[in-house]
Design goal:
CATH topology: TIM Barrel
Number of strands: 8
Number of domains: 1
Strand order of the largest sheet: 1-2-3-4-5-6-7-8
CATH class: Alpha Beta
Largest sheet: 8 strands, parallel
Helix content: 40-55%
Order of helices and strands: EHHEHEHEHEHEHEHEHH
CATH architecture: Alpha-Beta Barrel
Bound molecules: nickel (II) ion
């Protein structure tokens, strides 16, 4: 059984046809989905989907570019819902300095606030980091995120940086970019990082793997990502799938889901 640890079934386009998106993925062997929120509305949808389907788990959190105007009320909702039995993480949270809809200060305040909520609830973090690798590392270290750990989602940094995040108890999430013909770092990371620290994800509807780049992404494409990593690591997809399921269950403290197929 394959796992998609980062799949936005709560994105407007995918949510409109999420049953079909899930069915297509399950036909391709994907049996477990984690849906991360990126604002209040999509965090609520993630929880709703997780309540409805046994094989969907939710993460709740506010993406750094979506926090404009957020205050007491929004963060209170996170605090009230973080202990929901199907909420397995706070995310996606972090830094994004590619866009300028929010300032660095606003992003930092929100990030720290959400790290503290995660720590209090003892739930891991799903981290988004764009053009901000060093600052992401420093904030996580300074605020003792190693106490809860998490995943560096769609990790785009170097092998050396990946090792530093692993020391902080973070896993490395690999997705579509590992299949891109021009990708260098993700392939080196896939090759050198121990399989015990890897997770698979699509970041649907974004980052569609080769050869479908430019089209809408879906969790049905997880096998393309798995295939590529297995080819790089020279291991069988069965062995790989077992490990990834184990890693996912360990990090997100998910019970059940034995691998029988
Ligand atoms: Ni995402």
């Amino acid at each position: 059984m394959y796992v998609d640890t980062h799949c936005h079934l709560n994105n407007k386009d995918l949510y409109a046809k999420y049953k079909q998106v899930m069915d297509e993925a399950m036909q391709n062997g994907v049996g477990l989905f984690i849906v991360p929120g990126f604002d209040l509305e999509t965090s609520k949808i993630a929880v709703e989907l997780a309540e409805k389907y046994e094989n969907i788990y939710a993460a709740i959190g506010f993406h750094p570019t979506e926090i404009k105007g957020y205050g007491k009320e929004e963060y209170k909702w996170l605090e009230e819902n973080v202990n929901h039995p199907k909420v397995v993480a706070i995310g996606e949270v972090g830094y994004d300095f590619h866009w300028d809809t929010t300032t660095e200060e606003e992003q930092e305040e929100s990030f720290i606030r959400q790290i503290e909520i995660a720590k209090k609830a003892n739930k891991p973090l799903i981290i988004h980091s764009r053009d901000a690798m060093n600052k992401t590392y420093l904030t996580l270290k300074e605020h003792h995120a190693e106490l809860i750990g998490g995943v560096m989602h769609s990790f785009s940094g170097s092998y050396e940086m990946a090792k530093e995040f692993i020391k902080l108890n973070f896993y490395i999430g690999l997705g579509g970019p590992v299949t891109f013909t021009n990708a260098k770092d993700p392939k080196i990371v896939a090759e050198k990082i121990d399989i015990n620290y890897l997770l698979t994800e699509t970041d649907s509807p974004y980052l569609t793997p080769h050869p479908y780049r430019g089209k809408e992404n879906g969790p049905k494409y997880i096998p393309l990502i798995v295939q590529k990593i297995c080819e790089i690591k020279q291991i069988s997809s069965d062995e790989f799938a077992d490990k990834i399921l184990e890693n996912t269950k360990r990090l997100f403290k998910i019970k059940g889901w034995e691998n029988n197929d």
